[in-house]
Amino acid sequence: MIKKYDVIIAGAGMAGSIAAAVAAKRGLEVLLIDRNKIEEPGKKTNWGWVCGDAVATTHLDFLKTKLDIDFKYPELDLKVDGVLALSPNLKHKYLFDGKGFILNRPLFEKQLINKAIKNGAEYITEFSIESPLIENNYIKGIQGRNKNKELKKIYSDITIDALGISTPLRRKLPDNPFIDKTIDIDDIESTGRFIYEFNTKEENLDFYDPKNALIHLNQELAPGGYGWVFPKSNNKINIGIGIQKQSLEIRNKKLNRQDTLQSLMNNYIKMNPVFKNLKIYNEFNNGVGYWSVSVRRQMESLVFNGYIGAGDSMAMPNPISAGGIGPALIAGSLAGENAAIAIENKDVSIKGLWNYNIDYNKAYGNKTAGLEVFRTYMQSVNNNILNYGMKTFLTVDEAKALSYGDISNLSLSSKFKMILKGVSNMKAFSNLLYAVKKMKEFNKIYETYPNIENFEQWKKLVNKNIKEIKNYFKPNPI
Ligand SMILES: Cc1cc2nc3c(=O)[nH]c(=O)nc-3n(C[C@H](O)[C@H](O)[C@H](O)COP(=O)(O)OP(=O)(O)OC[C@H]3O[C@@H](n4cnc5c(N)ncnc54)[C@H](O)[C@@H]3O)c2cc1C
After folding, report:
1. Which residue minimizes the CA distance to atom 6 of ligand 1?
2. Which tens digits make up the pLDDT trace of 122-131?
């Protein structure tokens, strides 16, 4: 007899490990599969655990309520007071996000996987998943190669896709109106990230702040994205940039340059006045890495017959910050819970799994389309407007509210009247008002997530509005 699991969890990263821990705790027979070696838990790619590794304390608190795990040093490498976003001229700063930690990612992921195993999940390493098993429009498990490169099929009632942004499972789903199989290149940030040890040449809190994660908004340095300098313990930093391909091409053309992600990354490191004797810190072979992160709303549906998606496989990172650890942890835990409910109810059809869509929308997803609008707006303004806007358009509290997708308390129209006399860049300001208006509309659209019968119509409305925004706000970095 061929063994069949209740749930296969594909990918033992952030989303997959917590999904496995939760599903196993609920008594399901769980198989957690990853291509990594056992000593490389949660490694995203051959390049390593490529990430800024910043996570808000609220997300760790959430984990504790779900799984009773208490994290401490060394997996929580350094506590930070918040995330500080700086304008291109460094004169204006917004403090976002509240307290958090910079993780020692490999150690953190190891704890999560250990919890899943302790709760009863079976764990297979060095198994590379290639495709879903499809029967009668249902996902019935996965096919892939074990460490001896033998092709194997493994069966389950539900497959949770937590394979990250490069997932072959979502991309090989049967054609269906629920889950898009591709992500638009304009909705992806290409990133470089290095971890360094350093000595200090001079103090300059605009470039390195041991108490805050710094974000540099600058369309010339990091077109369509941003640069970051996140502090780590013992004179180490996590430093990187994210860029949008189209913005880079426009910038290069206008400035007559041939910069690439690598050359921009090198520039960004070189221009920082604080560090000297920079040396790649290569613990776990994780010092230098390049990878991608999506910055769109999550897939409109996260479920299909016998299939649930969680984390980067479903484009869950926050469209403004690209922070995806929090959403991956929330989604993984909800995926584990909803898988258990569907198995108990003996209904793993898309209808039987639909509640996960509703749960995720309520817990995190309902603000992301609005945030995608704001991201698209930000990519349409150059450094001059960014400098001027951060000084004039928004208070710190308003910017913070916007970053959470909360626009209810913004009195932009009264502000509009107030500064009408003085504001020098009316077009940019009225564009911001338009973006906020569209964010409000999206928040309304996502307020009530549709039932399965109304889904296609709802998705059409979402796509129509997104298209309108992308036509209105074109990348314009220089
Ligand atoms: C440069 C960069 C900086 C970032 N900075 C931050 C930050 O500071 N804070 C934040 O919150 N988020 C950040 N993010 C986003 C964050 O890293 C991700 O959202 C998060 O890792 C998502 O977790 P996940 O479990 O969904 O996927 P992943 O972390 O990608 O895990 C996927 C797992 O699946 C496995 N896998 C993949 N394919 C296969 C296969 N075919 N077969 C078997 N196993 C497979 C991998 O080995 C891995 O273990 C950043 C992203 C990037 C690229």
Report:
1. 52
2. 999 999 999 9
Q: Which atom of ligand 1 lies closest to the CA of 34?
A: 44
Indicate the DSSP class of residue 222: S
Q: What is the pLDDT of residues 78-110, one digit of tens each?
A: 999 999 999 999 999 988 768 999 999 999 999
Mean pLDDT of the chain: 94
pLDDT tens-place string over residues 333-364: 999 999 999 999 999 999 999 999 999 999 99
Q: Which of 333, 314, 336, 334 is nearest to 324 (CA)?
A: 314
Contact by Cβ (8 Å): 40, 126: no
The CB of 193 under 6 Å from ligand 1? The reply is yes
Tally Cβ neighbours within 10 Å of residue 461.
Answer: 14
Residue 457 has pLDDT above 70, yes or no: yes
Cα separation, 308 vs 434, whole angstroms: 35
Q: How far apart are CA 331 and CA 9, in angstroms?
A: 13
Q: Are strands 30-33 and 122-124 parallel, antiparallel or unpaired?
A: parallel
Residue of 35, 50, 160 to mutate, ligand 1, most atoms within 8 A of C-beta: 35
> At a CB cut-off of 8 Å and minimum separation 6, what does 329 contact?
14, 15, 18, 59, 62, 63
Ligand 1 pocket, residue 14 CB under 6 Å:
yes
Ligand 1 atom 18: residue of nearest CA: 324
Closest residue by CA, ligand 1 atom 2? 51
Buried b (16+ CB within 10 A) or exposed e, 152-165: eebbbbbbbbbbbb
Verify whether ligand 1 is closer than 6 Å to residue 293 (CB atom): yes
* pLDDT at 418 exceeding the cut of 70: no
pLDDT of residue 417: 56
- Residue 456 CB burial class (10 angstroms; 0-12, 13-18, ≥19): middle
H or E stretch at 20 = helix 14-25
Of all protein residues, the one whose alpha carbon is nearest to atom 19 of ligand 1 is 324
Please give the distance, rounded to the nearest whole angstrom, from the Cα atom of residue 336 to the centre of ligand 1: 18
Lowest-confidence range among 181-190, 253-262, 268-277, 389-398? Answer: 389-398
Enumerate the H helices of 68-122 as residue ranges: 105-118
* Ligand 1 centroid from CA 419, angstroms: 43
Output the pLDDT for position 428: 82
What is this structure's pTM?
Answer: 0.96
Spacing of C-alpha 122 from chain mean position: 27
